[in-house]
Write a structure and sequence with these properties.
Length: 304
């Protein structure tokens, strides 16, 4: 649907593993419990990613806490992992997240002290976590470079121009599996039964069946070509003859036609940003997959 971009799920998936980043990034191979010297403190200071706690001298940074919050669904990773998102968290929730990471930091430090970081299985898992962290940074860099205010405004202008040049149709439909079922529905309509009643009884479209087949307003490109061709060529108040699409057999009744209302840029800005981020990530993954050799060992796809 126009101006209804898909949710940015891909970026969220890359962030799910980031909660373990402290194992890879905060220990830096140093001995367990080493106190922070002034020089080390200066090296650890990052105004863009401040430490919220220290465990035996090693920091738990805001980015780690926000990654954990994103993994728990408390914030939307698509909005970034900065100070604004930290401000959204309730004080008690923030404290709980920090305490949980303190516990994990302690466990990680103890595991390092015991030499578990050299265990082959642990090494493989740490390598996978490193890929997760690097993926997050790569995606953040790509998004920052390509999802600019100018790019978002251009997307809005393009979509608004399409809307302004299009008509919207308000239609109902009856969807059935076979031509015979469609013909039977037409007979009932010709005998005077209400379109809404027939749709509720025989339509197999779960999204519109209980609404008497109501699809609301839509523009031509919102629907599959076969459906749009009939809907936009049928007069207001008229009922179409049965026709077939990839979903089955349809009968359409056109209720109204109008010029669409174009939302303002401010109303759509957040959705457009999410859509732009989704497309950037999708395009990057498609490019990388196209260049890669991927061999699934356990059959046609990943299996356990």
């Amino acid at each position: 649907m126009t101006f209804s971009p898909p949710q940015l799920l891909v970026l969220g998936a890359f962030l799910l593993g980031a909660v373990m980043v402290f194992i890879v990034t905060s220990l830096n191979g140093q001995p367990y419990g080493l106190p922070v010297t002034e020089e080390a403190w200066l090296k650890q200071t990052d105004v863009n990613d401040p430490a919220l706690a220290f465990v035996n001298g090693w920091p738990i940074r805001r980015s780690q806490v926000l990654s954990e919050a994103a993994a728990r669904g408390l914030i939307d990773p698509a909005d970034g992992l900065g100070a604004a998102q930290a401000a959204e968290l309730d004080g008690q929730v923030l404290q709980t997240l920090v305490e949980d990471l303190v516990d994990q930091q302690l466990l990680g430090l103890e595991a390092r002290r015991l030499g578990l970081a050299r265990d082959p299985q642990a090494t493989r898992l740490l390598r996978a976590r490193e890929d997760t962290v690097l993926s997050e940074f790569l995606l953040g860099r790509e998004v920052d470079a390509l999802v600019t205010p100018a790019a978002v405004r251009q997307l809005y202008d393009e979509q608004a121009a399409i809307l302004k040049s299009s008509d919207e149709v308000h239609a109902r439909h009856i969807l059935v599996k076979t031509r015979a079922e469609a013909d039977a529905a037409v007979v009932r309509l010709d005998q005077g039964e209400a379109f809404t009643a027939v749709a509720r009884q025989v339509s197999i479209d779960p999204g519109s069946k209980e609404k008497g087949g109501d699809l609301g307003y839509f523009i031509r490109r919102d629907m599959v070509p076969a459906f749009s061709k009939v809907a936009f060529s049928t007069k207001v108040g008229a009922v179409s003859k049965p026709f077939e699409s990839e979903f089955g057999w349809h009968i359409v009744k056109v209720e109204d036609r109008r010029k669409p209302v174009v939302p303002t840029f401010e109303e759509l800005q957040s959705q457009l940003v999410r859509y732009q981020k989704f497309r950037v990530i999708e395009n990057l993954l498609m490019e990388l997959r196209g260049k890669a050799t991927i061999d699934y060992v356990l059959g046609a796809g990943p299996e356990l």
